[in-house]
């Protein structure tokens, strides 16, 4: 979650599912793409917040050569 001073609002960009520390080298971090759950979030948040802003941008980090990966985003389709 981050604050956008120009828009004067908080933006939920991602949710850490699990990980060790904050961006520790050689340790994986698993995140949730919040934009996939936008409709559900809006239904839950409803009138509790003035506006729900969801960041659709994608940040990609380089995977270690010896690391494992799986594509959970596309596996549920």
Helix/strand order, N-terminal first: EEEEHEH
Q: What characteristic shape results from the CA principal axes? A: flat
Helix content: 10-25%
Number of strands: 5
- For this structure, the quaternary state is single chain
Distance from first to last alpha carbon: 27 Å
Which class best fits the helix and strand makeup?
alpha+beta
Description:
This protein is α+β, with helices and mostly antiparallel strands and 77 residues long. The protein has one domain. Helix content is 16%, strand content 26%. The strands form two sheets. The chain has a three-stranded mixed beta sheet, with no helix packed on it. Strand 1 and strand 2 form a beta hairpin.
Write the layout of secondary structure elements.
Layout: E1 2-4, E2 9-12, E3 14-19, E4 29-33, H1 38-45, E5 53-54, H2 72-75
List the main descriptive attributes of the protein structure presented here.
77 residues, alpha+beta, 3-stranded mixed beta sheet, two-stranded antiparallel ribbon, flat
Task: Write a brief caption for the model.
This protein is α+β, with helices and mostly antiparallel strands and 77 residues long.
């Amino acid at each position: 979650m981050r604050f956008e001073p120009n828009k004067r609002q908080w933006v939920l960009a991602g949710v850490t599912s699990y990980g060790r520390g904050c961006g520790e080298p050689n340790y994986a971090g698993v995140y949730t793409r919040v934009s996939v759950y936008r409709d559900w979030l809006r239904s839950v948040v409803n009138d509790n917040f003035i506006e729900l802003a969801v960041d659709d941008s994608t940040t990609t980090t380089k995977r270690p050569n010896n690391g494992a990966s799986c594509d959970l985003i596309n596996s549920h389709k």
